[in-house]
């Protein structure tokens, strides 16, 4: 079999038909079972049109390898992570393309304990075996079980709500936008549990029902064109907070009480502050793209900050190695030690509700203060003709002037009053630029214009 181009840095994603189909995912499932010597595997899927057929093919491949398949059906990726650990399974697979275009799909894979696969050994071995198809004779056929579905979701809801003190919550109205992805049913169980516990929170649901057609657009709240729907509803409802999820809800995006989108780097700082308020001796992991606001809040609270390379496989490993209570990426992935060091799109907004209740402040005021102290460009993407040549040109011009340099993930250069990070995308042929400054919005804008002009000069057609 030819090379499987659906294998990316640490996940599987591809266009349906030419890169990904039922035969391909069946091969991957068999390879997954063989490499991990799995006896029990948790399976889940998002509502995408192709996900049910791919899920059936995954189950077939696993059962051909003698595996007991525990199928959660429609659920979030984080529910697969949770059930893998909760049930003591040998691995978990979620069929999802998250926020990718309509004609894409993919697989997210974890091993026992919801731990990430080692990209150099296990993930690479699965790829080689799936490509070769040398599986040997079929094992005694495995089995298929859906009986744990309800109790797994109930246990998942309990775990998610364990991160907050429900009795501390103040009355609030929250807008939630599931984007017609997988979030709706899982959120409803969380909301019901909050209501039963007496939480004074009311919810305004929008685009709530899972729908394979995605009638309101692909659920990717990071796209500027997708943000007004949630923003406008927050304003219309007079809500204190808006929450929007991507397709498999392992990421959540927040909107403040003024309807403004909250950039991910500022949410990382808020969540770090929330954990350190409870225990100032804890470690916080963050990615290297935009760091000053997060590091300032961690230092003020007495915590310890640790870098990790961008990407969930890398973040999870550093989380586990360091024992960090929380880790955050500006791309809206948030990881929690007491959630198997995995990412969750449900825990963050609950922690923000608790933080707002404790501070008796609006989210807009909290974010405004941090943006003033540490303005940030947000991530700016450039499609360039020659990535290596472009990076070399930036390095030649700016590196000699830098006071400090870090190459944990791309090239980070610190000039004292401003800082840049330039890195290659893990998944697309792009260069990603982030710039931050210390309390100087004018300087930030000047550096953004300067670097953008330089990178645009290397743009590909």
From TrEMBL:
Sequence ranges assigned to domain Alpha-D-phosphohexomutase C-terminal in this UniProt record: 379-449
Domain Alpha-D-phosphohexomutase alpha/beta/alpha: 7-130, 155-259, 264-370
InterPro entries: A-D-PHexomutase_a/b/a-I, A-D-PHexomutase_a/b/a-I/II/III, A-D-PHexomutase_a/b/a-II, A-D-PHexomutase_a/b/a-III, A-D-PHexomutase_C, A-D-PHexomutase_C_sf, A-D-PHexomutase_CS, Alpha-D-phosphohexomutase_SF
Superkingdom of origin: Bacteria
Keyword Disulfide bond: no
Cofactor: Mg(2+)
Family: Belongs to the phosphohexose mutase family.
Protein known as: Phosphomannomutase
The organism of origin for this protein: Aliiroseovarius salicola
Lineage start: Bacteria, Pseudomonadati, Pseudomonadota, Alphaproteobacteria, Rhodobacterales
């Amino acid at each position: 079999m030819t090379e499987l181009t659906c294998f990316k840095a640490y996940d599987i994603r591809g266009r349906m038909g030419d890169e990904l189909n039922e035969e391909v995912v069946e091969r991957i499932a068999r390879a997954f079972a063989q490499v991990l010597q799995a006896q029990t595997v948790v399976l889940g899927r998002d509502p995408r049109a192709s996900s049910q057929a791919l899920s059936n093919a995954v189950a077939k491949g696993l059962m051909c390898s003698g595996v007991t398949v525990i199928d959660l059906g429609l659920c979030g990726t984080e529910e697969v992570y949770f059930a893998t650990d909760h049930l003591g399974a040998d691995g978990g697979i979620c069929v999802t393309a998250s926020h990718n275009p309509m004609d894409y799909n993919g697989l997210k894979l974890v091993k026992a304990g919801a731990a990430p696969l080692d990209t150099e050994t296990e993930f690479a071995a699965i790829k080689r075996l799936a490509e070769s198809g040398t599986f040997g004779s079929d094992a005694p056929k495995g089995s298929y079980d859906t009986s744990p579905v309800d109790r797994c979701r109930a246990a998942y809801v309990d775990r998610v709500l364990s991160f907050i003190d429900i009795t501390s919550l103040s009355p609030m109205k929250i807008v939630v936008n599931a984007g017609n992805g997988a979030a709706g049913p899982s959120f409803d169980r969380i909301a019901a549990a909050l209501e039963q516990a007496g939480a004074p929170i009311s919810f305004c649901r929008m685009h709530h029902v899972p729908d394979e057609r995605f009638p309101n657009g692909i659920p990717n709240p990071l796209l500027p064109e997708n943000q007004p729907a949630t923003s406008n509803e927050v304003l219309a409802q007079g809500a204190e907070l808006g929450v929007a999820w991507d397709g498999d809800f392992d990421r959540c995006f927040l909107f403040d009480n003024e309807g403004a989108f909250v950039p991910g780097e500022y949410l990382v700082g808020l969540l770090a502050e929330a954990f350190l308020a409870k225990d100032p001796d804890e470690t916080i992991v963050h990615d290297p793209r935009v760091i000053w606001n997060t590091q300032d809040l961690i230092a003020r609270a007495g915590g310890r900050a640790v870098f990790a390379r961008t990407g969930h496989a890398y973040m999870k490993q550093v989380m586990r190695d360091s024992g960090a209570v929380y880790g955050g990426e500006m791309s809206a992935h948030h990881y929690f030690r007491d959630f198997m060091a995995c990412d969750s799109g449900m825990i963050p907004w609950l922690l923000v509700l608790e933080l707002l209740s404790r501070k008796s402040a609006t989210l807009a005021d909290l974010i405004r203060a941090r943006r003033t102290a540490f303005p940030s460009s947000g991530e700016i993407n450039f499609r360039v003709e020659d990535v290596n040549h472009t990076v070399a040109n930036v390095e030649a011009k700016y590196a000699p002037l830098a006071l400090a340099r870090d190459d944990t993930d791309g090239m980070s250069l610190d000039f004292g009053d401003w800082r840049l990070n330039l890195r290659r995308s893990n998944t697309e042929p792009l260069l990603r630029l982030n710039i931050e400054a210390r309390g100087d919005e004018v300087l930030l804008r000047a550096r953004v214009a300067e670097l953008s002009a330089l990178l645009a000069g290397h743009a590909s057609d």
